[in-house]
Specification:
Elements: E1 2-5, E2 8-11, H1 14-20, H2 25-47, H3 66-79, E3 84-89, E4 95-97, E5 106-114, E6 125-133, E7 146-152, E8 156-161, E9 166-171, E10 177-181, E11 192-195, H4 204-215, E12 219-220, H5 226-236, E13 239-243, H6 256-269, E14 273-275, E15 295-298, H7 300-312
Parallel strand pairs: 3-5, 11-12, 11-13
Antiparallel strand pairs: 1-2, 3-4, 5-6, 6-7, 7-8, 8-9, 9-10, 13-15, 14-15
Helix pairs in contact: 2-3, 4-7
The chain binds 2,6-di-O-phosphono-beta-D-fructofuranose.
The site of 2,6-di-O-phosphono-beta-D-fructofuranose has 13 residues, from α5.
């Protein structure tokens, strides 16, 4: 976590860490640009909107809803980064081509403010990002070259993987990201479970998964924000998050490309697993940008056990 220089210990910042990982200059630039954008998102969350979207402020400027503002912040940063050929945002659901020659460039999918309704309740929200090489966004998540999220909680943290482990950085007083957790690893079984959706709409098979976890002594922990809930499961290392198929929503709620894939990439990198009940989330070939999928994600043995229950039905 720290670098020794004589007797002084220095924090390792994000850029230094990325250089130490021997990642390409373009990739480092991209991650750092997203980290920069997040500082403006933090500022908007802390000071902007406050439930007054649609009204004007003291200076007659119309207040922009936070989810729109954060989307603009992220989009602008990516478009001007010079290393991104294609973007797609959960907010607009359209593919934006920045460069028609994708050679050497990345395509980026993102949800700039997941859980945005929670901001007015002062609960944690986050940004989710998936990164591919080239310009094809409708490919399995396994082809991603990197994924990350930024959690805006009591602290701001950035968790990323470029396929060489999972690392957490925390924003310091200077709004720089310092390495705070090295090579995050998950245990095989969960102590906590985070269950999305309405219990009355669960299938009997999913009920069995819940009962199994409860009987094993796992405690329910659910914030209602995907990023905070995944962060809890991943950093505790002993958890499982589930957003199942519901009776009136057989594909569940969460978006495969914008939400589930980046998180599945991170959790697999930490030794966990993610399934839709039938196959690993990362192996699903998306047919559309807005495709949804049920998800069971977290400790490997429990994800496998959940799939067993679901398939026994
Ligand atoms: P939200 O609709 O509030 O943006 O991404 C969708 C999401 O939040 C996730 O952050 C969260 O995990 C989920 O929906 C919560 O859904 P339920 O309220 O149905 O549990």
């Amino acid at each position: 976590m720290y670098r020794e220089a004589g007797k002084t210990k220095f924090q390792i910042n994000l850029r230094q860490h990325l250089r130490d990982q021997n990642l390409s200059g373009n990739f480092i630039h991209l991650i750092c640009e997203i980290a920069e954008a997040s500082k403006y998102v933090v500022n908007s969350i802390r000071t902007g909107d406050l439930g007054v979207a649609g009204t004007s402020n003291l200076y007659g400027e119309e207040q922009v809803p936070l989810d729109v503002l954060s989307d603009r912040i992220m989009r602008k940063r990516l478009m001007h980064s010079g290393v991104v050929g294609t973007i797609a945002s959960e907010k607009t659901d359209e593919i934006v081509t920045i460069s028609s020659n994708p050679h050497g460039l990345f395509s980026v999918v993102y949800d700039s403010l997941d859980g945005s309704p929670l901001v007015d309740l002062n609960l944690a929200v986050g940004t989710i990002v998936g990164i591919y090489q080239g310009n094809d966004l409708l490919q399995p998540g396994r082809n991603m070259v990197g994924a990350m999220y930024i959690l805006y909680g009591p602290r701001v943290s950035l968790v990323y993987s470029a396929g060489k482990g999972v690392f957490e950085f925390t924003m310091n007083q200077l709004m720089e990201f310092d390495l705070s957790r090295d090579n995050i690893q998950m245990s095989p079984t969960a102590d906590i479970y985070a269950p999305g959706g309405l219990r009355a709409k669960y299938s009997p098979e999913h009920d069995q998964v819940i009962n199994y976890l409860e009987e094993r002594g796992a405690k329910l922990r659910y914030s209602g924000g995907f990023v905070a809930d995944i962060n809890h499961v991943l950093l505790k290392g002993k958890g499982i998050f589930m957003y199942p198929a519901l009776r009136d929503a057989p594909q569940g709620k969460l978006r495969l490309i914008f939400e589930s894939n980046p998180m599945a990439f991170l959790v697999e990198q930490a030794g966990g697993a993610a399934t839709d009940g039938l196959r690993p989330i990362l192996d699903i070939v998306p047919e559309s940008l807005d495709q949804r999928s049920p998800i069971y994600i977290g400790c490997k043995d429990d994800v496998e056990k959940a799939a067993e229950f679901l398939n026994a039905g």
